[in-house]
Each structure stands twice: as structure tokens, then as C-alpha cells.
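Structure ticket #2291
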Amino acid sequence: MTKDIKNRNLLIHILCWGIVIFLPLLFYRPNDTWDMRWTHFVRSMGSSLCYMLVFYINYLWLIPKMLFAHKRKMFFIANMGLIAVAIACTFGWWNLMSDIFDIAPRRRQGFGPPMTSLIFQSLLMFILVVGLSVAVRMSQRWQHLEEARKEAERQRTEAELSNLRNQLNPHFLLNTLNNIYALIAFDQNKAQTAVEELSKLLRHVLYGNQLNFVPLYKEVAFMNNYIELMKIRVTQNVKVETNIDIAPDDSTPVAPLIFISLIENAFKHGISPSGAGEITVNMSNTDGCITCEIVNSNFPKRENDKSGSGIGLEQVGKRLELLYPDRYKWEKGTTDNDSKYYSKITIYNET
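Resolution: structure written out below.
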């Protein structure tokens, strides 16, 4: 429990018991003097103090030690004894103060309710006090359990995200190195340029990916660098079009590498064996949502293609569910004639 919550609970206790203690001052007859009101207040203090005693003995000891320990019978017996003592103390205080202030109780004068009725009323009040202490303690216990559950869920989510990041970095690096390896066979100059581009990307992968969120403009710069790296490998028969409508200083937080697997997938399946194909990348951040849509020619991966293990898109789904629960939409599939494959992720920003 944080310090702020403890201070808030303490303030609530003080205010509530202050109301209980000073409430009798509001009940007086118009012709009562201040001394008569003060005398009535002092005599009523016994009831208020006994209420507090019963409440906190239950709150601090009986409930956690007996009720929460499933010793309900002992809890019931202990409260019956406690209430009996509290009732005796209440009437003892009232009679003592009446003697001190030389006030004969109305019951002795033939007025007021009989003793059995007063005892019954006091019994009901103390039972209500016990019930209130149980309700307060149970609500606090539920709150603590809920906080512990949320903390455990947060730690589990962080562990899963860390595990996904540890998998994604080698996966991304492996696919990129495979592309560079393919370049070495027919164009060493392009391969050297690709290695230079790769060094720029690794800084983002190794450092930016350790965060849950990065500014959107940094992620867009990374995506552009990656696309340029991939364009080095492909032939002129591959048409790559990018329409990224993101401001250069757009600092909207976004999960790192959340879209890069879609681009990887487009270059992997959007190019035919003969080296032709089309890839279009559209991205925007408008109306409170980030949208990334990628459309590419549909050339399914060949069985002898070992360029990747296929875990990229699976990780995208897991990370979206962990980082954007109920705040994202992922549409994917092929067109009617299967000539195009599309993948569109929409992330709704919190407002």
C-alpha cells in the first residue's frame, strides 16, 4: 500500500469517527443550555468510545487473526464476549457520568424505555459496528489482492514482452543477413552498401527495442531505412511505393518494430521468382489512430526458401495483444483473385 493510500485511509477514519463522536451535539432541545448540551455530550462519549473499541479490536486483530484464518466459530464467540463487555462499559459510563453531574436518569423517574429495550438497542448497534469493520476489512483485502493480481499481471506481461524482444532481434538480424548474403553472390558493391545500412538499423534494434514504446518519428525513420536496405537487393522490376504521412516531429508513442515484420513479409512474398512484383506501404496518424497498411503481390513462400522461420507475424499478434489490448485492429488476407496480399494494422491512441 502506497503512502498516499495510507494517508487517505487515515483521513477517512479520522473524519468518520469525528462525526460519530460529535454527532450528539446536534441533538438537543431548543431550550437546552450549553452546560446541558455539554453534559449530554460527555455522557454519550462512553458509547462512541466503545464503538471505536469494538471496531478496532475487530479491524486490527479478530478479523485478520480469526475470520480470515477461517476460525469463524472463535470469531463469533470472541465478538459476543466483546460486545457484552462493551455494553456493560457503555451503561457503566452513562451511570457514572450521571452521578458525577448529579443527573437522575429518566428511566428512574418513570420515563424512557425499559432496560431490556436499551440493551437490545445497544446490542444491535454493536453488531452493526462489527459488520462495518468486517465490510471495511474485506474491501481492503480485496483491494490488496486486486493490486497484487495487477502487479503479477504487469510483471508477466513485461516478461513476455522481454522474451518476444529477445526473439525478435535475432529473427530480424537473421533475415537481413540472409538478404545481404544473397547480394554478395552477384553484386559486392551493393552488399557493402547494405552492410552500412544494416549498421544504422542495428542501433535502433539493439537499443530502441529495449523500450516498450518509442516516438513514432523514430520508428518511421527506421522503417524507411529498412525499405531502402531491401530495395538494394531487388531488381528494377520490383515497384516499391511508400506513402508515409507522418510529421517529422510526431512523438506519438508506438511499440518498436511493431510494423517491420509486415514489411519483411511483403518483401518475402511480394516478389516473384523472376524478380518482379509490387509493394505499397501506406502509413498515417490521424483522428487519434495510427494506421499502417501494406499491399504486395502475392507469391507464397516456396518450400525450399529458408530465409526465415516465420515467427515475425506471430510475434506481431502477441505484442499487439499485450501492448494494445482492445485498442487495435488487424486486417489481413488476399484479394478475390489472390493476386494481392494486404495487411492493415490500426492502433487507437488513448485519449
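Closing remark: Strands lie at 214-215, 238-245, 253-254, 277-286, 289-297, 328-334, 340-348.
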